[in-house]
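Hi team,

Below is the intake form for Large ribosomal subunit protein bL25 from Flavobacterium kingsejongi. Please confirm the fields before the structure is written into the shared record.

FORM ID: S-0412
PROTEIN: Large ribosomal subunit protein bL25
ORGANISM: Flavobacterium kingsejongi
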Amino acid sequence: MKSITIKGSERESVGKSATKAVRNAGLVPCVLYGGDQPVHFTAPEAAFKGLVYTPNVHTVAIELENGKAFNAILQDIQVHPVSDKILHIDFYQLHDDKEITMEVPVKVVGTSKGVLAGGVLRLNTRKLKVRALPKNLPDFVEADITPLEMGNKLYVTKIPVDNFKLLNPDNTVVAQVRISRAAMKAAQEAAKAAKAPAKGKKK
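The structure came back. Fields below:
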């Protein structure tokens, strides 16, 4: 999985007044969990643009001015309900020998037979829950829709895995090919035509 580097400064004062001063300075208060003790630090809001405002997921290399460095993933984020300004971010520290769970985007590949026949592809699940060692975390999970006929569903159990586990329930539908209105109308008209008596046929 690709990594984004966040450079920040460790902070000791974590009270409300100190946090307010941090935000007024254009910085985001952050906490890193998962180690021996939580690490409080700040970083410029602009540093999180490539991490937060994207459908992709990344690991994070946190580099602090005092020389401390950590590998982590974004665990939780708080944003202002009106301005969408980042208020606070929680990170979770990664350890090479410990598996981690996170949601990874689904990438559709292939061309569905059902879509070629006039069906409509629907992506039911845009992210899947993955568990793996940090080095094995995938950037995305591939969903091959090639075998899907009209009306078929692709379940999570049909998704190939490689050095990681999928934790979603077995009945999770990742994608499906639905019958389009045009195809349904054409089928109905064909059925009516088949039932109607041929013109000019004597009774």
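SUMMARY LINE: The radius of gyration is 25 Å.

Thanks, M.
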